[in-house]
C-alpha cells in the first residue's frame, strides 16, 4: 500500500471514531427510518423519495464501504506477497 493510500484510509478511520461521525450517521439513519410509504403522494414523489433514500443509504453505508475497500486492498497485497 502506498503512503498516500495509507493516509487515505487512516484519515477515514480517524473520522469514524469521532462523536460527530456517530452523530451524523445516527441522524442519517433516523431520516431513513422516517420515510413512510403512506406519505408518498404520487409517482413523481415516489421517484424523488427513492432518490433520497438511495443517497441516504449510501451515506449510512459509507464507513462499511471504506472498511471493505481497505480489507480488499490488504488482501490484494497479501496475495502479491505469496
Helices and strands in order, then pairings?
Blueprint: H1 3-16, H2 19-33, H3 43-60, H4 62-81
Helix pairs in contact: 1-4, 2-3
What is the H-and-E element order? HHHH
Q: What Rg, in angstroms, do the CA atoms define?
A: 18 Å
Question: Which stretches are poorly predicted, pLDDT < 50 over at least 5 residues?
Answer: none
Structural class: mainly alpha
Question: What does the average pLDDT come to?
Answer: 95
In total, the number of strands is: 0
Largest sheet: none
SS element count, helices = 4
β content, as a range? under 5%
Could you estimate the helical fraction of the residues in percent?
over 70%
* Envelope shape: elongated
**How many domains?**
1
Q: Span from first to last CA?
A: 15 Å
Describe the structure.
This protein has 82 residues and is mainly α. It has one domain (3-81). Helix content is 82%, strand content 0%. It has helices spanning 3-16, 19-33, 43-60, 62-81. Helix 1 packs antiparallel against helix 4 (62-81) and helix 2 (19-33) runs antiparallel to helix 3. The radius of gyration is 18 Å and the shape is elongated. The relative contact order is 0.13.
Amino acid at each position: 500500500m502506498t503512503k498516500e493510500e495509507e493516509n487515505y484510509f487512516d484519515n477515514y478511520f480517524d473520522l469514524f471514531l469521532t462523536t460527530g461521525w456517530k452523530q451524523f450517521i445516527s441522524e442519517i439513519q433516523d431520516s431513513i427510518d422516517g420515510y413512510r410509504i403512506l406519505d408518498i403522494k404520487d409517482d413523481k414523489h415516489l421517484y424523488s423519495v427513492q432518490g433520497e433514500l438511495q443517497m441516504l443509504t449510501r451515506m449510512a453505508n459509507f464507513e462499511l464501504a471504506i472498511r471493505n475497500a481497505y480489507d480488499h486492498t490488504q488482501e490484494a497485497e497479501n496475495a502479491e506477497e505469496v
